[in-house]
User: What shape does this take?
Amino acid sequence: MLSLTKAVLAPVTLLAALTACGTTEASEVAGSEAAPAASSKECTDDTETSTEPVSLTDSFGREVELEKPAERVAVLEWQQTEDVLTLCVAPVAVADAEGYATWNTAEELPEGVTDVGTRGEPNLDALFGANPDLVIIEAYTPDDAIIKQLEKYDVPVLATRGADAEDPIRNMTDTFELIAAATGREERAEAVVAELEASLAEATEALADVEDTDFVYFDGWIQGGNVALRPFGQGSLMGELGESIGLTNVWDGKVDEAYGLGQTDIEGLAEVKDATFFHTGTVDPAGDFVVEMEKNAIFESFPAVREGRVHAFPAGTWTFGGPRSAQQAVEAYVDLLTD
Assistant: This one.
């Protein structure tokens, strides 16, 4: 069963070392030698694609050389899965397809994609059995075990940076554009990034008259019968998206260096009790922290709660996603504050 601690917390910890082939259960939705058709409604057969050889440097300074843009792409993290779909390239293999469908609704996986198991421990038999011409991964340092493990195989590996609290929006678009270069979809990427920038500008205008601009976004889970909360602080993607459209992220507690994520409990929210609260609307199958949070008398006493300024984002809004997830988040901020 998918749990938030496995699904949402996974991006903020180093990926576990990959296990030997065949040790992680995997399934094939509808295995086929032909690459699945891209499912995005915006994608057409005439999406502009380069045919020239590809020579690029990935997020960790590794040189990646391809005789032609990658067509059969395997992806081991959800942001990058979303990205290839936005670029109108359907992956031949992904990690944790069920989890992706639960937490990320920005782009729908088409039929025919091989599921290679978990993101931290993919099944290598299934991964390379899908015959990819490129494997896209998320890493945190040039020495990540996942890079070293996959480099042993005769398939190019494109390593993208998981997060950068110095500029999370730029890191997100850099990752997207890097994947576009590897798949020959630079023109498509340029259009998508322009759409994101337009969405940010439109949202800024839509929120210009909003008076209560202080906010905190958080998710959470149930741990030992208690509610644990994770505020998205300074340097987080959700925080920076909010600030880019005129809001003020008031969570200034200690956060991790990569994702800008903090840790607290319900009582800890007292420090920002006057702010508007936003939280994930995706329900963790292992337990709904929101139900338990709303039973707490301290939480119910906060001004944001008493005044109806606690808002759930639409389910499936992935807080670590690509440009399309970012647009979903921006639209949610606007809709919830102007409804």
Observations:
- Residues 54-196 form a domain with the Rossmann fold fold (CATH 3.40.50.1980).
- Residues 1-7, 12-32 have pLDDT under 50 and may be disordered.
- The two ends are 35 Å apart (CA to CA).
- The chain has two domains: 54-196, 211-338.
